[in-house]
Amino acid sequence: MSSSKLLTRSFAGGEITPEMYGRLDNVKFQTGLALCLNAYVLPHGPVTKRPGTGFTNVAGDSTQKVRVIPFAFSADQTMVIEAGHGYLKFHTQGATLQRGTPAAYSGATAYTPGKLVTSAGNVYYCIANTTGNAPPNATYWYLLPSSDYQIPSPYAGADLFTLRYTQSADVLTITAIGYRPRELRRIGATEWVLSAPSLGASVVTPGTPTVVITPGTGTAYLKNIFYKVTAVNSDGSEESLAPFASAAAAIDLTLPGAQNAVSWTAATGAASYRVYKAVNDANKLYGFIGETTALTFTDDNITPDYSLNPPSSTIRLDTAGNYPTAVSYFEQRRAFGGTTNSPQGVYLTRAGTESNLSVSSPSNPSDALAFSVKAQQQNAVRHLMPLNDLLVLTAGGVWRVASTSGALVPETLSTKPQTFYGASDVTPALTGHSCLYVEKNGRRVRDIGYSWESQAYTSDDRSIIAPHLFLDYTIVDMAYMLSPDQLLWCVRSDGALLSMAYVPEHQVYGWSQHFTDGLFESVCVVTEDNEDVLYAVVKRNLNGSDVRCIERMASRRFATQDDAFFVDCGL
Question: Are strands 95-96 and 110-111 parallel, antiparallel or unpaired?
Answer without folding.
Answer: unpaired
